[in-house]
Structures are given as structure tokens and as C-alpha cells.
Amino acid sequence: MRKIVIDPRVIKHLGRDLITSPEVAVIELLKNSIDAKAKNINLRLYNGLSCNELFPAHVRDIIPKQYHHSPMLIVEDDGCGMNDATLDDGFLKIATDIKSNEEGTLGEKGIGRLATQRLGTALLVETSSDKENHTSYVFIDWNDVINGTEEVPSFEGPVTSHHTRLIIFNVNLEDFIDNAMQFEQLSLDTTVFQVQINRELKSALNFLITPFANPQGILPMPQIRFYFDNHEVDIAFPYDTLILAESIHSFRFEPTKDGVLSYGLDIKPWFIERVHRALVKAEAFTRLKKSHSFYRDILERNSTRIENTLKAYATKEELVSLFYDILSDFYAVAEDDYKKALFDSFIEKKRLLRLMSF
């Protein structure tokens, strides 16, 4: 008999190495806050403030001195928080299956908190649940864990309202904001309005912020805000720019006589103009180009025919079949009948989750 041994460095591979970018790491942490039914999530990035200014003495005592003046990111939410059992079995246990039986959760693999490694070298967890009469604190230095440390410092503080705060130390400012180094030389008063969240992170955050009305029966997404040294930074996507689009894809889930999903493509006059340019080639287009009103009139005269061509409906049965085909392509299916039956059962659960809102 031989023994399988898991080296503690696997923690590094699951966190720093497999999470490919800081924005992916941030989204992993936000997913945990959303699963905790948070209504508000704040991302607080600090460069000019120390632990003495941010935390009371009983919290500072657990933070090693080398992190007291390092840049830090705080991810805080007003979700349900973690009780002692959830903290031990759901957060400190790597690859836990604690969420596997919960419907509608975004985190399933139990490794989301390892995303903090991609952002910094140490983590302070502060959490409070209505099920406990105290606030729990745990400090994790990831380098110690990677080197084999299993026990991490922890203590209990005064009870507070339900929440979770992840304080990540020694972060790289340029993972979050553009031109981060300039803020070390300039005063905040002259730069606060120049702070820009970097494009990749802004794009990732806006995938979690919908501009559309909340579907009936679905919990609203939390309000997400970003702060740099306590000054709020705008992270909203400029949705007004959609009016400049050549075409807009539309999807609406709404049971009708034709189906449960209506989808289509709305096109603008400048889409017609670009098609014209592509058909006659760029050189000839300089001679054949028409006025903008010409393309607008073409679109208006043929609006009914275009709409009938570019609009369609899908029934619930068609969507179920489509989900099955997509998932079958994504997952390998064994030829064995028993394994095939297990796969079909797995697919059924997956597609039912997607159809719950119908």
C-alpha cells in the first residue's frame, strides 16, 4: 500500500496560480457576498491610511506589524455573516461542499476565498452572524499556510450586526486603479476626482450590475460600491453609449402564445450604411455613399419585413433541448448506460435551475 500525500503548496496553485487576474479574484469574493444575501457590498482600497487609523486596538493586535502600513483592500458586505460552524467548515475548510445542496448559489467549489491570495499576501476575516453572540476574527498569512501551517490566530470580539469583512493586506494598487503610483506623490485633495478604476475590473464588476428591471421572484442584486481612501469612485458603465450602437441584441423571458423567450436584433441606420460599405468595398464607397437620411429611410420603409426577419421566439421545450445540447457538448458523456443515466440526471438538475424563473 502507498499513501497519497497532499502538499500544502496546493493552496498556492488553487489561489495564486489558477486565478488568472485580479478582476477574476474580486468577482470570486463578490460571489460569496451575493450567496450570503448581502444587500450592499463595498470594496475599499487603502493606500494612505494605516491600521491605526482603520481598526480598533483589539483588531490591530492580531495583525503583524509588517502589514500595518501596507496597501490593503477591504471587501465588506451586510450579508448573513458566518457563525462558528460556517467559519470552520465553510471558510477555513478548503474545497468544502457546504454550498453543494443550496439552490441558486454562485460558489460551488469551495475555493473562492483562495482568491484573496491573488490580491494580497495576508487576510483578516471579520464576521458576525445573528446565530452567535460575538464577532469572530481570523488572521491568515498565506505564505505560512503554503509552508504547512495549519493553525491560524483567531479571537472573538464584541457582538455586532451580521456582516463579513475580508481585509486583504499588501495588495498591488495597479490591480484596481489606473496610474496608481501617482498617488504616492500627489495629495489626495488634488487627485480624488482623477482616480479611475481600471478598465478590466470595471468591466467585470458591471457584469454583476444589471441595467434592467429585476425579474419577478428573483432576489435583487446587491448595491456594489468602490472607494479609494474613503472617497467613492464611479464604477458605473456608461449605458447612454448604447444609443451609438449599430445593433442591439434583445432577449425577454415572458410567457406568450408564441413561447417563453422572445429574442431579436434591433439595427440602426448606420448599420445599413456599414453593410453598404462592405458590399461595394471601401474604394467604391467614397463615390457611392449616400446621406444619413437615405439609410434611415431604407430602414423605416422596410421596418416590418426587417422586424419579422430579425425577431424570433423559443418555447420552453426548445430551450430545454438547447440547454441539454450545450451541457452535453461541455461535459464528457461515458458510453456506459449507468454513467449515462447519472449524466442525464445531472443535466436535468442543471437545466431546471435555468428554467426556475419561467
Structure notes:
The chain has 358 residues and is of the alpha+beta class. It is built from 14 helices and 11 strands. An 8-stranded mixed beta sheet has the order 5-4-3-6-2-1-7-8. Helix 13 crosses helix 14 (337-354). The longest helix is centred in the last third of the chain and has 20 residues, at 269-288. The mean pLDDT is 79.
Kindly summarize this structure in a few lines.
It contains 14 helices and 11 strands. It has helices at 10-17, 22-35, 51-54, 57-60, 84-91, 115-119, 142-146, 188-191, 199-206, 269-288, 292-301, 303-310, 316-330, 337-354, and strands at 40-46, 72-77, 122-128, 135-141, 154-157, 163-169, 223-228, 231-233, 247-253, 261-267, 311-314.
Radius of gyration: 26 Å
Percent of residues in helical segments?
A: 25-40%
Indicate the overall shape.
extended
Total number of helical segments? Answer: 14
Given helix and strand content, the structural type is: alpha+beta
Which spans of ≥5 residues are poorly predicted at pLDDT below 50?
none
% residues in beta strands: 15-25%
What is the element string, with H for helices and E for strands?
A: HHEHHEHHEEHEEHHEEEEHHHEHH
Q: Strands across the major sheet, in which order? A: 5-4-3-6-2-1-7-8
- Overall mean confidence score, pLDDT: 79
Main beta sheet strand tally, sense and closure: 8 strands, mixed
Calculate the terminal CA-CA distance, rounded to whole Å: 53 Å
What is the oligomeric state here? single chain
